[in-house]
Write the structure tokens for this entry.
Amino acid sequence: MIVKNEERTLARCLDTVTDLVDEIIILDTGSSDRTMDIAAMYTDQVYTYVWNEDFAAARNESFARATQEYILWLDADDVLLPGERAKLTMLKEQLPSGGKTAGVIMGYTLAEGPEGSPLVADRRLRLVRRDAGCRWHGRLHEQLRFPQGEVITADIAVTHRREAGNHSARNVRILRKWIAEEGIAQGRLLFYYAGECYDRQRYAAAARGYAKLLEQPSGYREDRLIACARLAECYERLGEPGRKLGALLQSFQYDLPHADFCCAIAACFHERQEIVTAIYWYMQAVDVSSRDPGLRPVPAACRTWLPHARLSLCYAQLGNWEQALLHNTKARKYLPDDPGLIGNREKLEAVIRKQRKEREG
């Protein structure tokens, strides 16, 4: 782990893994609170590191201190929930010493819903064999490069519970230094710069950055998908609905349809009161939800209840009450206690009963 001023979260994180791992290595990059004291309660391997505006360099230094066969990395605001702890224990037993597995991909819950259910989830290369030579790259939003050798996917999820904090000034400082050294903002560097503008609600600047990124002849596919989604939101904020729809449709140049893009496209037509077209796109969201490609986090709502809830509204607007009730029922399978869905069901059932009586009378 690399940490700085994490006194509010560090113990919470370490309590969930301290009995599962064989060593804990903490690299402190300049804390001014009780972070190092808290770390010392869990391990004697607490090191200071002179921060040089480079996250990958710090991560690599922390990896260099490791002595065990496999390295698991975490952030201070991550936790392992009880069920995931049991799965990690089982994984340790299944990875024999000297085995051929070089890395393990695990789930990453970025936002939680009721009772800890994942709202937004992603995947990370979370566990790597030390001798596989894995290195971190990127001064900001660093990434761990995949090792040579077998990489498996485990049904284990780390949960990210972000504490309130604003790192925008630090991130902009790192990016400016990085851009100055590169001489130009392009590729992933441009992606990060646009992201910082987006996070600071500078939507016009973010839109220019994402649009420029999408004009480049090559790049990471997942970055382009995220750029399309955020470009669409920027245009929404800037009051340009036509360009918003164009950004959403542009995502199909880079990958198969994703459920959240289909829902967003459907919403554009729904707002225009083009109900039949909106129904088509909500149905596409339902169709792709079971096989979403998984290149980027897709909100769970778009893969579960949301398209059905919107389809119910669309069919009600067309006067197709039976179909409206059908999709209301499908949405309630995911949200059985939602008062809005329950209220709509009661209204739909009342309309259907009235029509049946009229037909029978």
Notes: Residues 112 and 334 are 15 Å apart (CA to CA). The chain has a mean pLDDT of 89. The chain is about 50% helix and 15% strand.
